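The authors assume throughout that readers already know how a fold can be written as discrete tokens. In essence, backbone conformation is discretised, so a fold becomes a row of integers matching the chain in length. A single example would do more here than another paragraph of explanation. For illustration, here is how one protein appears when written out as sequence plus structure tokens:

…
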Amino acid sequence: MHLEGVFTAHATPFDGDEIDHAALERLLDFLIDGGVDGVVTAGCTGEAATLSHDEHREIVEVAVNLVDGRTRVVAGTGSNSTREAVELTGHAETAGADAAMLITPYYNRPPQRGLVKHFTAVAEAVSIPIVLYNVPSRTGVNMEPETVLRLAELDNVVAVKEASGDVSQAARILEEASDDFSVLSGDDSEALATAALGGSGVVSVAGNLVPGKMRELFSAASRGDLKEAREVHRRLSPLFRALFLETNPIPVKRALNLVGLGAGEPRPPLTPLSRDAEGPLRESLRELDLI
């Protein structure tokens, strides 16, 4: 499987402390109508860290059923426990997800050889395509390009979501990996740079609100029209910044509520958006005629 295009890491809507199925269906329909190439369910933006294992399985199953083949579903199945990661990935495969995305183990901060062992164990336990997810700001460990390249040799490791904040890491992987291995930007603000280097797409937070615009940005960049891609990027940059004024997904959930899609509030220990961040977020939405 070659992953290419815009994959929106969607929020998990809550009604009080329960998953809001109606709001989830509304959001997924909006994303599909916006032309996304896939959705990432139960990832960081989906508050996977505060979902119980039962809820995690539930939202993957519900998303697969609601999407019903209209786009790809990539299930977040990472854990800092290899055993749990194997179990969650096996469930995603059984539920019918198109691929699984696994974050590097957090808190226990394994060495690079531990990362190889962890992801190899998961990949060998399932046949579903695996997307590696490198985000050291959340996990405390960076997956070095050499480690990604080694894991890319496994048959069902098909992509990496690169969110280290260092575009040179994406460049190194693109330089040495096979053409069928996908490098996806894990940061909306770096989507243009990654595409210009030859990256295959972006896992987007802004795509919850502007899926069509993110498609325009990536499509222009991938066909080499950097003038148009830069123009779209510049229009979206205030939104990119506003969505990370506080810890993701605090701002995007507030934005979804403001535009009428509804997402409820983040689960503790995350909090509702602060007053200081409210103004810049609203202004970025107004500039794009979203409110």
Summary: The mean pLDDT is 96. The longest strand covers residues 157-162. The chain has one domain: 5-226. Residues 5-226 form a domain with the TIM Barrel fold (CATH 3.20.20.70).
